[in-house]
Amino acid sequence: MTRPARRGRRGAAALAALTLAAAGTTAVLTAPAASAAAPTVTDGCLKSAPEPGTTAKVDICWTMFKPAGASSSHRVPFVIHSHGWGGSRTTDPAAFQKYLDAGFGVLSFDQRGFGESGGKAHVENPAFEGKDVRNLVAFIASQGWVKKDAPGDPRLGAIGGSYGGGYQFLGAFEELRVHGKPVFDALAPEITWWDLKDSLAPDEVVRTEWVSALTAASLPSDALPQEIIASVAEGAARGNWPDGSTPGTTDLDRFFEKNGPRWHLSQGRRLDIPVLFGQGETDNLFPLTQGLKNWAGALTDRARSRSIFVGYNGGHTLPSVFPAGVGVAGDPCSTELGSASFGDLALRFLQEKLQGKDRGLTGFGRFHLATADGTCTTVSSVAPDRTVALPDLVSTTAVGAPLPTQVAAGPIRIAGRSFLDGKVTTYTPDARAFLALAVGTSPADARIVQNNMMPINEPTAVTGAKRRIELPSVAVDVPQGQNLYLVVSPVSDMFASHGSRVPGVVQVSGARLQLPTVG
Hints:
By secondary structure, the protein is an alpha+beta fold. It has 13 helices and 25 strands. Helix 1 crosses helix 6 (208-218) and helix 3 (126-141) crosses helix 4. This is Pimeloyl-ACP methyl ester carboxylesterase. InterPro entries: AB_hydrolase_fold, FrsA_esterase, TAT_signal, Xaa-Pro-like_dom.
């Protein structure tokens, strides 16, 4: 098939912000080997689900790479790839040369609403993007040179980051929902989400910087439905997550309800396939916690025992200026697992899982987390194991300075999920504050660990309300001579304009910090 003319759908600035490749995203894209045999490259489009209220099927466009030597008598396993939000498929075979040399077929596709594909982006909705991926899998299964486990069931893996990780979970869960098995045999998603609402607006507080950037990235391609853009604008103006309560706006809870692994778990589905997770720890759009929730919720126990979790310093990264944070880049854990990059680790993983080759991989069933200072910590659990009692915590709301409280003196190592338990009192409605772990020699120089904060949000005034507040998941070594702090702030630049609507106070009494310590 010939490829349709490109429609000029990409905004360079937004794309640069949203296909952030710091420390690993789309690191599978590699330079060609000098003596590599040329693959057969084919471009085309298939027809998929119509948009709501229409009957015309939507084009989903792809580029397929058939490795040299693949044939009906020498069938090969297959890998699907797709792009991040605002991007488009990869058409240069050099990008996948390592996979082609290793004997994989590859298909890269434009997701609905982007590149040459038609329709609107429904942000990995089962009824739209889910049908698109299922149609692509059926197309791949129809190729006579692709290895099959059963009729219509290709030996299949997947790669890609961010939005290109979202389609992987969607596709595997949709095959499980429709056919009773995931069809995908292994996944290697990077910096993707467990629940979009939980990512974009934890505790109903919008990550303004990222929601604005995501919306901006959709405008050049007209990718998002107009009612979604209008609702996001309303949310930015009102400082609240749009739930459809304002006449004429869309309920974003409903729009995003099914758009992630969390929904599939609520329907009783888990994937029983191996997954190589790559999650950014300095990622402040889909932070480390989202990957840890996917590990715990999306997979069966058996699948986790055959999977590997890698956290690196990178992903969707914006600096935390107020309160001041520290964000570094690097992927020491892929190196410790014997690979030059996460992309190379993904290739080894898929060779083992799809081709049955022994590539010497270790670290299955464990978490390999880059610390804030660039070392790798491996743990078998990310659950808290230490409780620290703290004095009452008090933060102003709407305005004021961040307030650090010392938690522990170094040396101490933290790796995993932390929580703050306590009784919350506010004196005004819609009271909000933001929390994070920080490291420094004193409260004056303490800096937010890996650039992440999480909100407290009390829509009505409360007195002594019991709460468990989730803190950002981090990995950090606090050396001798420095301290670990809990910072409570009235504002956070990641949630700009979504702090409290009026000045007031948030108080947490009986505060007990739950920490995941190592060693």
